[in-house]
Every structure is written in C-alpha cells, then in structure tokens.
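Give me a protein, keeping tokens residue-aligned:
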Amino acid sequence: MGEYDITTGYLFRQFPDDFVKFIAGDTAEDIELADPVLKQIRYADATAHATIFSEDGTKAEVIVHIEFQTDADDTMPVRMAGYIGRLIDMYRKPVHASVIYLRPQKIDDPGIYHYKFPNEFTARYNVLRIWECDGEEILAKGFLGLLPLVPLMQPEGISNEEWLGKCIRTIESSVPSEQDRKELLASTSVLAGLVHDINFVRTFIPEEIMRQSSVVKEILRKEGIQYIISVLEVRFGGVDDTIKNSLALIQDEETLRYLFRQSVVAEKDEVERKILALSA
C-alpha cells in the first residue's frame, strides 16, 4: 500500500460527506463510514453507507465505494467486480462504485465487467479522471476533504505556481481546525507530487507541517515495515504471513527502527521471535 493509497484513504475517512456528495450527488444524506471491503487495507479504504437520490427523486440506501487509482490498470474491471460482489455480500445493499484516476494519462477503463455465458453477469462502476474535473467548482463548493486533490485539476492557462498557491491559500483560509489544516496541507504535498516535482511542492508547504502530519507518519510507518520485510527476504528468502501481519500491528516508530536493525544483524528465529513479542 503506497503513499497515495494511504493519503486518499485518510481523506475519505476523515471527510466522507465531501467524497460521497462529490461522487453520488450533493443531495446524498445519512452518510456513515462502513467497514472496509478488505480488512488488510483498512487505512486506505473508501467505503460508506449513504442514502442517494436519482434525478426524479427516487431514493436508495446504498454502499458507496471509491477506488483511488494512480495509474491505468487493465485488471480494474475484474477488481471492481470483486469489490462490488464482496460489498453486496457484506451489506445486502446496492453498491455505488467508482474509480478515480489520479495521474494524468490515457485511460481506457470501460467501467464495466461483463460476460454472457454460461450465465450473464454485469458489474458497472463510474470512471472519473480527476484532471478532467473542475477544480474551481470544488473550491467554490467548499469540499474540504477534496482540497488536496484540487492541484490535480489545474485549468488551462494558469501557471503551476498560481494554481498550487491558490489551493494552498484556500486550505489555510477556509479550514477552521488547525489539525485538519495541517493534515490537508500535508496531504496536498503528497498528492501534488503526482504532477509536480517534489522540490517545487515543498516550497509551498513547510517541512514542520509534514513532520507533524499523521498521514505522513503512517506513510513512513508503512515504509519502515516494508524495509524490514525486504531485508528479511534478501537474507532468508521469504517472510511468513504471520510475521507480515504482526509487523502491520506495530505502530511505534522507535520499535520499527529497532526491528529494522535486528533484521540486518540477527538470525531469522531471533528476529521473528522479537517481532511476535513486540506486536503482542
């Protein structure tokens, strides 16, 4: 799970109303976070209960699921059909599913998984290319959770400096909570890296804000776990799922640094024993 998955998942789970209304319409109501479709990606999940309305006023209680995708993926129709099926099984409700592509590129996602034989089956989902969305409209609507995505919606005729600066100033002036402001600025820094050089982005957002962000801390924690797994794979040829799952439970940064050092110098049995003990 990468930095963009963690960041978008955090934003959705902190601001579910903003994302559900963006995807399913401003009239959506009764919005409440749902359990993740896959337990192992809880931090990156974007799933919620909601009541939505059609243009003629028909309403439905649904599960809204968003898959944030950095790059094109030919397997997306199969993946989305799988997610939709799991959610129907979990909640016994219709599923309003969408994929939001983040990095500007050619996307040929058909938004459907379908076969006719032996029994006809169809799973449909919405496909959004975030760079085609109206960033000015998002800024005007005040969807705070989407503000870190607005740098990816840069209109033609506006310079990088002008647009990113406007996005940053909007967060600084419109977000009342200091902690939310820091998290949104840090999330903007991460996501803006999809379309801008990171050194350019850092000229807008102080390093101190990045260090204080829970989003950045979670990204670093995941990276630390992956470093440990990579070292163990190189030294011992493989890592048992029990060890990987135990590492995923460890939240303390200093503990992960200690285990990384141990993964470099200690024998396999000793490292695994310490991982299991420190994750308990």
In short: The longest strand covers residues 59-69. DSSP finds twelve helices and seven strands in the chain. The chain has a mean pLDDT of 94.
